[in-house]
Amino acid sequence: MKKPCPVYxxxxxxxNQFGRQTKVIGKGTGGxxxxxxxxxxxxxxxxxxxxxxxxxxxxxxxxxVTSEFCIGSSIHQENVIExxxxxxxxxxxxxxxxxxxxxxxxxxxMGGMDLDETFCWFKQVCQGVQYLHKIGxxxxxxxxENCLLTDRGVVKIIDFGCATVFKTPFQKEPSKVVGVCxxxxxxxxxxxxxxxxxxxxxxxxxxxxxxIMYMCMTLLKFPWRIADMERDRNYGSYIRDWPRGREKLxxxxxxxxxxxxxxxxxxxxxxxxxxLTMDQVMESEWMKDIEVCHSAIPAKSHTxxxxxx
Length: 309
Hints:
By secondary structure, this protein is an alpha+beta fold. The chain has two domains: 11-98, Phosphorylase Kinase, domain 1, CATH 3.30.200.20; 102-289, Transferase(Phosphotransferase), domain 1 (Orthogonal Bundle), CATH 1.10.510.10. The protein contains eleven helices and ten strands. Strands 1-2-3-5-4 form a five-stranded antiparallel sheet. It has a three-stranded antiparallel sheet with strand order 6-8-9. A two-stranded antiparallel sheet has the order 7-10. A hairpin with a 2-residue loop joins β4 (83-89) and β5 (92-98). The chain is globular.
């Protein structure tokens, strides 16, 4: 992985150099995202980070802000959002990113996608996550809401506020983490166990989250509210009635070609040792058989109708 961060002490850019802020296009715990109109009508997304909390030291706040930017700016892959700049103006901190007009969650909730469309978007998510894992980054908050779409139907993974570097170029073995990150329906069971200070591999938890995304895209609902046997009856049935619980769940999903079902089963396998890696997912015959759209070349097997009424 290349050296991720510039030196901020000599950073002279200002927000006005990029253009004029307009409407709010997103809000979260990390800050507010607005549309930025630049020269020649080029559009950007600008995230204004939240203000420092009263119980947060200036050092801790700056570490969080710069860490998110350092991770984002080190990533250059078609299915991950491009992070362009970090700007400090007074007590305001802005992150400039490429702009995408659509989000995957909206298209899933609208329904009406054919399977080739769904598979295309799912494989693009997997391509992006595979790239992240190859360079030692785990996202830790993968969900449909954190995937945007271009007008050509290209997926862009966003929001690296929870991301972590689990392996540096000089590190032989990946590091484990503790702590709960993500949104309840997507969180892997071992992450929930982290409340008891049990360390886990963040990149393995990412695989589970992507598998849940697939289920949402095909079932148009979550298979369970949270992956906790005591707190969710559906998940309890999935685990306690194994393998009947698994068979009952997968009977609701579309029948997949080649080894597709084994791939999805391997992504949402409850025990981390039995879960697939993203390299194994991408090497499957089913994945190789899926045609995807690219920025310059749309797929021939399907069309993404990107207009939203």
